[in-house]
Specification:
With 423 residues, the protein is an alpha/beta fold. It contains eleven helices and 29 strands.
Length: 423
């Protein structure tokens, strides 16, 4: 198959694919950062939300029929999608559709598991008449062209294909782990095993599911309805659906390939405070693994129309400056110093203050003479003048959350500021 025919083949397949983005999870390991928003709605990278990455992957892959399944505290997520993802043209059959759990189309319960979330919306999914269904997790950071995965699914005459990558054994305990044969057919699958099975070529790693699945649509409908009738099932893809198909149906693995074709494909589960801080901090390095400046694979989002970032004052002790940092629109750095930090939009940093290794979410103001190190500051926080955080973690832990890696999380509620803003 020549390259032109291959491209047309993949394009036809993606046009017949409906993507379902599972975006209902709270993300409890992010602690107070998800008290008022779902994990997929978490800001990331200075101007994006986590969910922008799988949604952008869909658009860039040629998949323009997308449904987002929401559940936990979804207002912020829904508003972001309405503002930032309404550019698709309905008259061309393109859409990003929201499927809230509260519809109670099948019963009066919330989504019981990932498979149940899809099953409860089967009538809507069927109405779009897709030939293939792509199921995605809405809370991971990566770039991926889904077209080749769907094409390989079709070429292998698979019933289901599972996206996977190799991860360290200790990390694999949090994922579905599989073993495959030389044809990449899945022979065994265990969800969150206590002792993950290592890969044959590297005893320190395991082959883990990315939570990315391709199904033949009719096959998925049948399996979801079968699973829904089982009282002992938790109605989850990893725990129930995949293991039940191994050995009786054609279930294959598809190894993750980064669109940048790097030796180590970039994929991050930013599900803990430390992982979230580290992934954002990676972006301010000279050559980060995740290239946000890639014009060939852009990450789309909603962004307010804001003025450029501004740096003022140039005295020895009062100089507005930032080094090895990212500063978003609307920020005002007034005689303060920033080093190895990432600032989201509309952050105001007042004179004689300093930030180091800080992640500052939107609409934060930091008073004068503050010193903050290795912190995540939630949206809407006001840091009073003369505040020092990050130098004495034992004292910090009395007021804030301090992670195992020494990252201090600061929310409005911790400072007695009842913002309750879920944006």
């Amino acid at each position: 198959m020549n390259s032109e025919n291959s491209y047309r083949f993949v394009s036809r397949l993606t046009r017949r694919t409906l993507a379902l983005v599972l975006a209902g999870g709270r993300g409890t390991r992010l602690k107070q950062l998800t008290d008022w928003r779902a994990k997929p709605a978490m800001p990331f990278g200075g101007k994006f939300r986590i969910i922008d990455f799988p949604l952008s992957n869909c658009i860039n892959s040629g998949i323009r029929q997308i449904a987002v399944l929401t559940q936990y505290k979804s207002h912020s997520l829904i508003r972001h999608i309405q503002k930032g993802w309404s550019f698709l043209r309905g008259e061309f059959g393109e859409f990003v559709e929201l499927m809230p759990a509260a519809q109670q189309r099948v019963n009066e319960a919330w989504y019981q598991g990932t498979a149940d979330a899809v099953c409860q919306n089967l009538n809507i999914i069927r109405s779009h008449n897709p030939e293939y269904i792509l199921v995605l997790a809405g809370d991971h950071i990566y770039k991926m062209d889904y077209g080749p995965m769907i094409a390989e699914h079709v070429e292998k005459k698979a019933d289901m294909t599972v996206g996977c990558l190799e991860v360290p054994l200790e990390m694999a305990k949090s994922f579905g782990v599989m073993s495959i044969n030389d044809k990449e057919r899945i022979m065994h699958f265990t969800e969150k095993p206590v002792q993950p099975e290592p890969t044959p070529n590297d005893p320190e790693k395991a082959l883990a599911s990315m939570g990315i699945y391709v199904f033949n649509a009719e096959f998925l409908y049948e399996e979801l309805q079968r699973d829904a009738e089982l009282s002992i099932s938790s109605h989850d893809f990893g725990k129930d659906i995949i293991p039940s198909l191994i050995g009786t149906h054609r279930v294959f693995a598809y190894r993750f390939r980064d669109v940048q074709k790097s030796e180590q494909p970039y994929w991050r589960d930013v599900g803990t405070v430390d992982a979230f801080w580290e992934a954002n901090m990676e972006l301010v390095s000279v050559t980060p693994h995740l290239n946000l400046y890639d014009q060939h694979w852009p990450i789309w989002t909603y962004q307010e129309q804001l003025p450029p970032a501004k740096f003022v004052f140039n005295d020895d002790e009062r100089r507005g400056m930032a080094v090895d940092s990212m500063v978003s629109g609307g920020c005002l750095i007034s005689g303060a110093k920033i080093k190895n930090s990432l600032l989201f939009s509309n952050v105001k940093l007042n004179s004689y203050s300093s930030l180091k290794q800080a992640i500052v979410l939107p609409d934060v103001e930091i008073g004068r003479h503050c010193s903050l190190k290795k912190v995540i500051i939630d949206k809407g926080v006001y840091i009073p003048p003369n505040t020092v955080i990050g130098q004495n973690l034992e004292e910090d832990a009395k007021r804030f959350y301090v992670s195992e890696g020494g990252v201090v999380v600061i929310t409005p509620q911790m400072l007695g500021q009842q913002v309750h803003n879920a944006n």
